[in-house]
Amino acid sequence: ACACACACYPLLAVLLVLFNREFVFAKMFSALQRATLSSSSVGRRASALLLLKQTQQQQQKREIHRALMYLPAHDEKKARKAAASGVDCVCLDLEDAVAPNRKAEARVSAAKLLKEVSFGRSAVAVRINPSQTKEAKEDLAVLLHPDATLMHTLVVPKVESVDDLEWLFSVVEKALKNRKPRPFISLFTQVESAKGLLDLRHIIEFDKSEITESLILRHEGVIFGADDYAADIGAVRSVGNSEMLFARQYIVAHAKAYHMQAIDLVNINYKNPEELKKEAQEGFGMGFTGKQIIHPSQIEIVHEAFTPTPAQIAWAVRVTEASAAHEASGKGAFSLDDRMIDSPTVKQCQNIIALAIMAGKLPAPTAAPPPGSPAALAAAVAEAATKSGEAAGAAGAGAGAAGGAAATTAAGGAAEAAPSASSTTTKQ
To answer: Cβ atoms within 10 A of the Cβ of 350, count?
Structure first.
């Protein structure tokens, strides 16, 4: 190991100068040093990580945040109303929604709400202040106190480099290392600047390496902070969001490449439901899995936009059933209702079915296959066919309608992320 490390150091130094990727190569140097000093300790850590992942996977249930609703953490009245709203995710905000002179009050209020309030079916997130700031350190000191009830999801704004995650992982693991059983917290980071967008791949990969990943946090989603991003690049916001097209597609591509959720920009015109509906449907069509919202009136519109329609579900069920039958007979591409069905179309239909299951529109598989696997999807289709004559009827009626190729395109790959949330933290 020592000889290998010595041979690699000069080459890495040259690459460091040429490509100016300090944070990447710093991690590579660190990895080599660890291998040199104690290969056995690295092996033990890898084994521990593997065991932890297996345990978490056994405890996970599939969830998706179609709507993530912010509210100021110090406003307990709004928080208690939100608990009964049925929104996929309630986010208690300690950042933008809270004035500087009320930060201390807000973090104490957030901890109190997490401990006292039942949020029903809603996941509970807390957005802290930007990483490495004095306010973030104080936020985490209260939220991760030994007596505190942990949030389901931690949202971290303005993440621009792996240094922000390295600091966060260190603080969280130090605070929670003695908790039994070991907790699991979903992590969503926000892209709000040009630098954060350009470094997104490295930020995501930081939690995918056995050397640098967290034992407690799991980076499961990326949120697009469009207003801060626009201010950072000097863009002027428009109703059609044309100035945001590149950033939105870039975020979706990176999130889906690593099977993460992608949460779209917020619409601040909460009294214009038609604009919100159009924007949400556009985001779903681009591959986003959900959208940020700021008012209860936006919940139903956004939930509906990010849920497949009955016609889309019926078409997806028909295509998946037909595909399974043709595959069993040794056939590949086939024709259904005068449309050519091949592997990409089947994949899109599987995405629709996965989304429908998570939204409660189709029954979840009762068999043992892993969630999202072809066997699990096939089991869901079979169960839907036996339990719901309505779906079969809709399939016959809507075969030539909007539930066809347009429906599969609309879903894109929206269910590709479908990350998980563990019951080991209190979901309230």
So the answer is: 27
Name the token pair of 214. Answer: 């967290």
Sign, Cα dihedral of 85, 90, 92, 96: negative
The single-letter code of the amino acid at 155 is V
Name the helix (H) or strand (E) containing 345: helix 343-358
- Between the alpha carbon of residue 9 and those of residues 6, 32, 40, 365, the distances in Å are 6, 9, 21, 51
Q: How many CA atoms lie within 13 A of 161 on its CB side?
A: 10
Greatest Cα pair distance in the chain: 69
Whether the bond into 181 is cis, omega within 30 of 0: yes
- DSSP secondary structure of 305-331: HTS--HHHHHHHHHHHHHHHHHHHTT-
SS3 of 47, please? helix
Query: Is the predicted pLDDT of residue 184 greater than 90, yes or no?
Result: yes
Res 202: pLDDT: 97
Q: Which two tokens stand for residue 305?
A: 């936009």
Can you give the length of the chain in residues? 428
- Segment (H or E) for 275: helix 273-286
pLDDT digits (tens, 9 = 90+) for 65-110: 999 999 999 999 999 999 999 999 999 999 999 999 999 999 999 9
Alpha-carbon distances of 174 from 118, 169, 185, rounded to whole Å:
28, 8, 14
Measure the CA–CA gap between 382 and 22, rounded to whole angstroms. Answer: 52
User: Residue holding tokens 């693991």?
Assistant: 173
* Phi–psi pair at 370, nearest 5 degrees: -60, 145
Q: 43 is written with which tokens?
A: 């092996």
Q: What pLDDT digit, counting tens, does each position of 334-358 carry?
A: 999 889 999 999 999 988 998 888 7
Confidence of residue 117 (pLDDT cuts 50, 70, 90): very high
d(CA 128, CA 136): 6
Catalytic site positions: 342
Residue 183, φ and ψ in degrees, nearest 5? -75, 165
